[in-house]
Amino acid sequence: MVEHPVVDAKAKKYDRQLRIWGAHGQAALESAKICLINSGTTGSETLKNLVLGGIAAFTIVDGAKVEAGDLGNNFLLEAANLGAPRAQSVTGLLKELNEAVTGSFVEESAEDLIDGNPAFFRGFDIVVATQMREASLLKLESICRESGVKLLIVRSYGLVGQLRASLGEHVVVESKPDNAVEDLRLHQPWPELAQYAHSLNLADLDEITHKHVPYAVLLIQAAAQWYEEHAHQRPASYKERSDFKLLIKSGQRQIDGCPIDEENFAEAVANAHKVWAPPPFPSEVHAILEDKAITSLSRSSSDFWVLAAALKKFVDTEGGGNLPLEGSIPDMTATTALYLQLHTLYRERAERDVAAVEAHVHTLLRSVGRDPKAIPRSTVKNFCKNARNLRVIRYRTLAEEVGTDTCKSDALRQAMSAEDTVSNATLYLLLRAVDRFHSTYNRFPGSYDGELEEDVPLLKTIALGILAECGAGNNTPISDDLVGEMCRFGGGELHCVAAVMGGIASQEAIKLLTKQFVPLSGTLVYNAMGSTTSVFQL
């Protein structure tokens, strides 16, 4: 009788996402407490995705009742919910999607809560603010910033969507780039690697083994021969690099003067550039190592900056200008024995690099009055493994983005002048303009059919005024067609746009919670009319 292993229920339930962000990422998600402001279509779509992902708990803040319009664009609601508190109805239905998630609601408008009980928001990891106007968002952002709570602003307005995150600083260790850079150190092999490579005498190997010598070994041997013949200079010109590849090919076995087809030599030729072109030192990582947070390290510094300071010391000393070795090697044509021997060398070197960085961590922790072992080795190891992909994002406040003296007028003017961004930049401007229109007229433009044509010039005048305030006027054109479209939207929240924005918002929330992948650092505008998105650094 064959015994089948018991699959953990949670692992089976979250199988796909565990493959993306791992058990530690899932643990971060399962401890997250989310506050959703307004449970309209956009908010419901966003929270639905997070509930299915397995957050710990959520609280919905919404003072509205379920109206007929909600039934047409919110898939969670049905006729039986008419007249009931919207927060209560959506909470109950979302809890049915994942029994492991705790849900609650507050039947009160966010504006009243912001003014009357700002401390309420301090108990959450992320506040997802949907369908809120600029004036209220500025107050909420101030509360969240002071409390260290992440704020995610999401909006659907007709056929336009907008998203922006606001928090002081976000650090990413596992950015997981699409195209990871391999660092085999072939341009500068350490002694043990060089010794191993030269211990394999190609002439003495049998035919099968000769065809399965890892290309890393072939390149180290070829490079050593080249250096000996060229005064220790790497191949520089096109001709020299071509000659180096010919040198690699000359090592192939021949039959009657014809080279035998050996795949490992073809791999060596394809990867020959790794001898003369070492992996670039990422500019983002260089900026981190030069950050003032390292030079002003203190007891209150986060573990990330202690690790970054230790990494800098390693690069300046033991690393000789190099980042710690990751320790893994790519697939290559090789016998199992040779591949494992090579892999062991890289793994052992990576462990030595981790030990060196860890020693610096202990010294730095001691110097700021913390326990030298406050940061576990596993954390140091993960940091070293991902050293090439570290990222730090510092967000401008919404107040800075919209402030008369602090807005980036040049960036806005440029975006509204470039052919590929002019439409979406104009939509960004008009989203700000409709909020100011609402503040003046207590309604969104186009809310009443009879006033649609009258609202178009009013909205355009407001938009031009915003441009002038931030110094981006200078005859910057505003499309009359887009102004007209914004008025025709009438402030409506369409499910097709809300679903897209909910997907984007939940994805960004997960990035912020797990500290994996690189979140958006600017303002995203989704243009459903043109099926395009733009991210503006404003």
From TrEMBL:
Q: Identify the InterPro entries for this entry.
A: APP-BP1, ThiF/MoeB/HesA, ThiF_NAD_FAD-bd, Ubiquitin-activating_enz
**Matching CDD domains, A to Z?**
APPBP1_RUB
GO MF terms held by the record: NEDD8 activating enzyme activity
Give the UniProt keywords, A-Z.
Ubl conjugation pathway
Domain (THIF-type NAD/FAD binding fold): give its ranges.
Answer: 14-530
Q: Name one GO biological process term.
A: protein neddylation
GO terms for cellular component: cytoplasm
Q: In which pathway does it act?
A: Protein modification; protein neddylation
**Superkingdom, natural source:** Eukaryota
Free-text function comment from the UniProt entry:
Regulatory subunit of the dimeric E1 enzyme. E1 activates RUB1/NEDD8 by first adenylating its C-terminal glycine residue with ATP, thereafter linking this residue to the side chain of the catalytic cysteine, yielding a RUB1-ECR1 thioester and free AMP. E1 finally transfers RUB1 to the catalytic cysteine of RCE1.
Instruction: Tell me its family.
Output: Belongs to the ubiquitin-activating E1 family. ULA1 subfamily.
Instruction: Report what the protein is called.
Output: NEDD8-activating enzyme E1 regulatory subunit
Which organism was this protein described from? [Myrmecia] bisecta
Classification lineage? Eukaryota, Viridiplantae, Chlorophyta, core chlorophytes, Trebouxiophyceae
